[in-house]
């Protein structure tokens, strides 16, 4: 608006100046013409002027003055002034150059006048004068139209500025609302500014920035998710704390180990650790790893490690990892127990062999010697069996990749029975085999042979002599399993021993003196596991026992 008003002011004033100058020029020209006309009059000039019709310039009458060489007024058509005109600038100029011109305020008639003097041939000077009618802006007759024009111009400029403002403000508003939405997490939003000006390029730069921001934020989120899913799937507990011991991050495994059931991010870790060993380890500066046993919430063996979290050069906290080593510890314990058991089991027959062999030196009697030699032979045999079983067990436990093949389990049981036939016959035990299975199973055939051998051997071993009967059932069920049931009518197993018979070196009653190693069923259990199967036992003391094995067969 200010610009528009300023322009109007400048334009109007220059226009008025131009008009006025034109007016002055025209008036001067007209006065000159009048003088030229009078210069033609010749003698009796005063009378001729007097008789001249009234000439008007701009509707104003002309004042004509005739002046002689000395500045004396000879004639004036308006006033009879006697004042000498010699010093008037236009007269001076006319005397010197033939023509003179001046504008001056006339005190006599109180207006500004233009004077034009011309020297005549007889050296008189004729001077014509007329009031100058200049235009001023705030003249009464102009002011109305001037205000109207001003009003129209102001209206027009308001209309134009509104349009301009709208063109600028609307894209800015659009950018502002998009920025607000982005700040609130909507990274997909884009500004719809499509003009070809600076705002348009600002809009496209903004969209470009939003695009980059979106990519960067998605990258950060993806990284964060990856770290989180790695932490969540770890089977070790990880806790990160800042320098004030406030939790920055904790994974589910750490929550489980420490028995924390709520979100403790931002809270002090020590408030949630009840175990003294853990909290003193975290507080301790020098110790970096430690093995401890906790009792709550579950009894566990833990290996805790602590390391500093460095960002650039600054230490921003520490990371504590909890590794559950309960299983490892148990295996370690089992291993040492196994070694102790093996040594003990081996020691018994060896002591016996050593003792009888030493005594043998002093025995002269043939019959006693034979008896002793028999005992030594039996013990050696037992030692061999024991070592064989230990080797089989360790072979299965070490999970060496065996030859996996598809085979018909009935054929393997047939092979076992062929071997066992003689032993059964010697004890007068009846072997009965019913095989209705036609499904193949997948696994190590030799191991399945060992499984059948151990169960059937036990059934024969723990059967009553003469009246014994061992029944072997081999069939498959529609739920995808092959079943092998071995039933005997032997001595049975006491109820309290049933859960333990699959343990290594466990024998129900050491006084049963059947020469067993206590490893047979442990081996069976391991083999069943390698076939992804299951084994259970049903037994009635003095009535008999049934071992039931089920193994998934291959769908044909
Ligand atoms: P062992 O070499 O002593 O037979 P096993 O591991 O094969 O060792 O068996 C463990 C124990 O389970 C045996 O000591 C035995 O007392 C008992 N047992 C196994 N099979 C039978 C069965 N068919 N009838 C009765 N007792 C059995």
Which secondary structure elements does this structure contain, and how are they paired or packed?
Layout lengths: L1 H38 L5 H7 L4 E2 L2 E2 L1 E5 L5 E4 L12 H9 L1 E8 L4 E9 L5 E7 L8 H44 L14 H36 L3 E6 L4 E4 L1 H7 L17 H8 L5 E6 L5 E12 L2 E11 L1 H35 L5 H32 L7 E3 L1 H18 L3 E6 L5 E3 L1 H17 L7 E9 L3 E8 L31 H11 L3 E7 L3 E9 L4
Parallel strand pairs: 14-16
Antiparallel strand pairs: 1-2, 3-4, 3-7, 5-6, 6-7, 8-9, 8-12, 10-11, 11-12, 13-15, 16-17, 17-19, 18-19
The chain binds adenosine-5'-diphosphate.
Radius of gyration, Cα only, in angstroms? 64 Å
Secondary structural class = alpha+beta
- Looking at the structure, the CATH topology of the largest domain is Heat Shock Protein 90
Global shape: rod-shaped
State the end-to-end distance.
94 Å
Compute the number of strand runs: 19
Query: How many separate domains make up the residues?
Result: 4
Number of helices: 12
- CATH superfamily annotation of the largest domain: Histidine kinase-like ATPase, C-terminal domain
> From the coordinates shown, what is the CATH architecture of the largest domain?
2-Layer Sandwich
CATH class of the largest domain: Alpha Beta
Q: Kindly report the spatial arrangement of strands forming the biggest sheet.
A: 4-3-7-6-5
What percentage of amino acids are in beta strands?
A: 15-25%
The bound ligands are:
adenosine-5'-diphosphate
Mean pLDDT: 88
Helix content: 40-55%
Q: Which regions contain 5 or more consecutive residues with pLDDT less than 50?
A: none
Largest sheet: 5 strands, antiparallel
GO biological process, one term: osmosensory signaling via phosphorelay pathway
InterPro entries: BphY/WalK/GraS-like, HAMP_dom, HATPase_C_sf, HATPase_dom, His_kinase_dom, HisK_dim/P_dom, HisK_dim/P_sf, PAS
Catalytic activity: ATP + protein L-histidine = ADP + protein N-phospho-L-histidine
GO molecular function: ATP binding; phosphorelay response regulator activity; phosphorelay sensor kinase activity; protein kinase activator activity
């Amino acid at each position: 608006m200010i610009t528009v008003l300023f322009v109007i002011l400048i334009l109007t004033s220059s226009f008025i100046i131009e008009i006025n100058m034109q007016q002055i020029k025209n008036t001067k020209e007209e006065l000159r013409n009048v003088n030229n006309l009078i210069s033609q009059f010749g003698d009796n000039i005063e009378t001729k002027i007097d008789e001249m019709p009234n000439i008007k310039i701009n509707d104003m009458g002309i004042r004509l003055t005739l002046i002689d060489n000395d500045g004396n007024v000879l004639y004036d058509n308006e006033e009879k002034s006697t004042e000498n005109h010699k010093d008037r600038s236009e007269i001076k100029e006319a005397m010197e150059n033939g023509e003179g011109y001046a504008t001056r305020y006339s005190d006599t008639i109180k207006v500004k006048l233009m004077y034009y003097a011309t020297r005549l041939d007889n050296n008189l000077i004729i001077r014509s004068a007329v009031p100058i009618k200049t235009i001023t802006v705030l003249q009464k007759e102009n002011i109305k139209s001037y205000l109207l024009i001003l009003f129209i111009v102001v209206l027009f400029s308001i209309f134009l500025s509104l349009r301009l403002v709208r063109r600028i403000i609307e894209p800015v508003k659009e950018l502002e609302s998009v920025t607000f939405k982005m700040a609130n997490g909507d990274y997909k939003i884009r500004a719809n500014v499509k003009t070809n000006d600076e705002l348009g390029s600002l809009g496209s730069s903004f969209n470009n920035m939003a695009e980059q921001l979106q990519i960067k934020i998605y990258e950060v989120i993806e990284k964060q998710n990856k770290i989180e899913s790695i932490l969540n799937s770890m089977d070790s507990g990880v806790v990160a704390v800042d320098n004030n011991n406030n939790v920055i991050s904790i994974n589910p495994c750490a929550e489980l180990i420490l028995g924390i059931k709520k979100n403790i991010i931002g809270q002090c870790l020590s408030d949630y650790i009840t175990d003294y060993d853990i909290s003193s380890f975290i507080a301790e500066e020098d110790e970096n790893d430690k093995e401890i046993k906790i009792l709550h919430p579950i009894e566990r063996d833990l290996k805790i490690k602590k390391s500093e979290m460095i960002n650039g050069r600054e230490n921003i906290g520490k990371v504590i990892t909890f590794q559950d080593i309960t299983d490892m510890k148990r295996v370690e314990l089992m291993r040492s127990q196994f070694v102790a058991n093996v040594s003990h089991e081996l020691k018994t027959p060896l002591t016996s062999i050593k003792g009888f062999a030493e005594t043998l030196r002093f025995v002269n009697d043939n019959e006693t010697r034979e008896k002793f030699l028999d005992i030594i032979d039996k013990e050696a045999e037992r030692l061999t069996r024991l070592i064989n079983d230990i080797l089989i067990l360790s072979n299965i436990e070490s999970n060496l990749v065996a030859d996996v093949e598809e085979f018909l389990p009935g054929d393997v049981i047939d092979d076992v029975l062929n071997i066992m036939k003689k032993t059964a016959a010697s004890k007068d035990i009846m072997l009965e085999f019913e095989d209705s299975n036609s499904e193949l199973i997948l696994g190590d055939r030799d191991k399945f042979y060992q499984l059948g051998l151990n169960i059937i051997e036990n059934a024969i071993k723990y059967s009553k002599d003469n009246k014994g009967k061992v029944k072997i059932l081999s069939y498959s069920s529609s739920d995808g399993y092959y079943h092998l049931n071995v039933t005997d009518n032997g001595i049975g197993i006491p109820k309290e021993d049933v859960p333990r018979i699959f343990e290594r070196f466990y024998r129900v009653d050491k006084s049963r003196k059947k020469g067993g190693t206590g490893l047979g069923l442990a081996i069976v259990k391991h083999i069943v596991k390698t076939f992804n199967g299951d084994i259970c036992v049903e037994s009635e003391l003095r009535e008999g026992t049934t071992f039931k094995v089920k193994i998934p067969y291959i769908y044909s």
